[in-house]
């Protein structure tokens, strides 16, 4: 299920003609776009979709509601933080508590503590293709921040640290209507400073260049972050990260080996020099081994196997359960053989 203009190597059941983009300005378009998103999300819960799913092995959702498909083998990955009272209902704690009968995967172990009542069958770390990132052993003389420009990511703390150190900092990332007020208050006042370079939202190649050539990546997490992909992307190239020790950061960063974890950036002011002295080849090697798309794929296959084995075996031999079980075992076996060959 997805937008009709999706470019993927499989059949797509469209829930809208074109992908919906988040608006960047805070005007009436915001309400219109949000209404469209809610409308399309509701289509994915329609029981009429069942007639389109006769050959599904397992349904894996990255945020859509699977409550009407609980009798199918199912898995939902929770990618974002969970709110106590979120206007976007799909991120609300009560939303998940009402769906405890579904199966879940977290993107970090720490994330599971947010809602331990859920039926977590796996922790699957995000992973990309490390080969798309060069290993850089002699970085340029600047610090970097890459991420959303909002209070959760707190890039103003990265700027303040860099300026206190007298270091150049390059910043890039997404800015949408929810964050415009924060950006105007906390970021704009620094943009005329000669040590601050604001790059806006970058394409993939520009992002890689920013992260790979920085001597340190700054990650002033101001919330319980479920993962933190930019930390891994920086590490692919050997770039260490100075981060607040919250959420998933202790799982992504091997302290004093691939980065430095601190309680706040006041402490970071005195410890950032340690990041400059770390072995960038080791940083790249560890990230490429632990956080890559092949490992992510195998761990999801293992999660699928767990889900299928836990489904009630009350259907006939010709049911989706038995066919899915056979397919999952076959795919998992093939994946393990491929991984053995890779290592």
Describe it for me?
The protein has 343 residues and is an alpha/beta fold. It contains 12 helices and 12 strands. It has a 6-stranded parallel β-sheet, sandwiched between helices. Strands 3-4-5-6 form a 4-stranded parallel β-sheet. Strand 8 (169-172), helix 5 (180-187) and strand 9 (196-198) form a beta-alpha-beta unit. Helix 4 (155-165) packs across helix 9 (265-276) and helix 7 crosses helix 10 (280-290). The radius of gyration is 22 Å and the shape is globular. Mean pLDDT is 87; it is low at 314-318 and 339-343.
Strand order of the largest sheet: 9-8-7-10-11-12
Largest sheet: 6 strands, parallel
In whole angstroms, the N-to-C terminal distance is 34 Å
Shape: globular
Q: How many strands in all?
A: 12
How big a fraction of the residues is strand?
A: 5-15%
The whole-number mean of residue pLDDT values reads 87
**Total DSSP helices:** 12
The helix-and-strand class reads: alpha/beta
Assembly category: single chain
Helix content: 25-40%
Low-confidence stretches: 314-318, 339-343
Order of SSEs, N→C?
EEHEEHEHEEHEHEHEHEHEHHHH
Q: Mind telling me the C-alpha Rg?
A: 22 Å
Present the secondary structure layout:
Blueprint (H helix, E strand, L loop, with lengths): L1 E2 L10 E3 L11 H16 L15 E3 L12 E5 L14 H5 L5 E4 L2 H4 L6 E5 L19 E4 L8 H11 L3 E4 L7 H8 L8 E3 L5 H10 L2 E4 L9 H8 L4 E4 L4 H4 L6 E4 L2 H12 L3 H11 L2 H18 L9 H23 L1
Parallel strand pairs: 1-2, 3-4, 4-5, 5-6, 7-8, 7-10, 8-9, 10-11, 11-12
Helix pairs in contact: 4-9, 7-10, 11-12
């Amino acid at each position: 299920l997805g937008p009709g203009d999706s470019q993927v190597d499989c059949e797509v059941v469209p829930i809208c003609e074109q992908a919906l983009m988040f608006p960047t300005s805070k005007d009436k378009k915001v309400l219109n776009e949000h209404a469209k998103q809610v409308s399309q999300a509701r289509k994915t819960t329609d029981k009429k979709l069942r007639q389109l799913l006769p050959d599904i092995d397992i349904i894996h959702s990255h945020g859509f509601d699977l409550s009407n498909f609980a009798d199918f083998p199912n898995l939902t990955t929770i990618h974002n933080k969970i709110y106590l009272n979120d206007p976007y209902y799909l991120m609300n704690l009560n939303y998940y508590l009402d769906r405890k009968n579904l199966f879940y995967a977290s993107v970090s172990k720490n994330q599971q503590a947010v809602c331990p009542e859920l039926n977590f069958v796996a922790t699957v770390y995000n992973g990309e293709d490390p080969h798309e990132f060069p290993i850089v052993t002699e970085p340029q003389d600047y610090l970097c921040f890459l991420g959303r420009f909002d209070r959760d990511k707190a890039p103003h703390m990265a700027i303040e640290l860099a300026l206190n150190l007298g270091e150049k900092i390059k910043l890039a990332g997404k800015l949408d209507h929810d964050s415009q007020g924060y950006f105007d208050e906390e970021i704009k006042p620094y943009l005329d400073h000669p040590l601050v370079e604001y790059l806006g939202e970058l394409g993939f190649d520009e992002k890689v260049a920013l992260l790979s050539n920085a001597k340190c990546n700054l990650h002033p997490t101001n919330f319980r972050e479920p993962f933190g992909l930019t930390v891994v992307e920086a590490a692919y190239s050997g770039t260490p990260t100075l981060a607040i020790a919250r959420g998933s950061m202790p799982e992504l960063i091997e302290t004093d080996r691939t980065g430095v974890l601190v309680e706040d950036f006041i402490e970071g002011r005195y410890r950032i020099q340690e990041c400059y002295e770390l072995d960038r080849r080791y940083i790249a090697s560890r990230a490429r081994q632990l956080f890559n798309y092949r490992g992510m794929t195998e761990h999801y296959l293992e999660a699928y196997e767990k889900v299928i084995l836990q489904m009630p075996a009350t259907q006939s031999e010709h049911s989706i359960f038995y066919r899915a079980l056979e397919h999952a075992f076959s795919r998992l076996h093939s994946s393990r053989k491929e991984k053995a060959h890779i290592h």
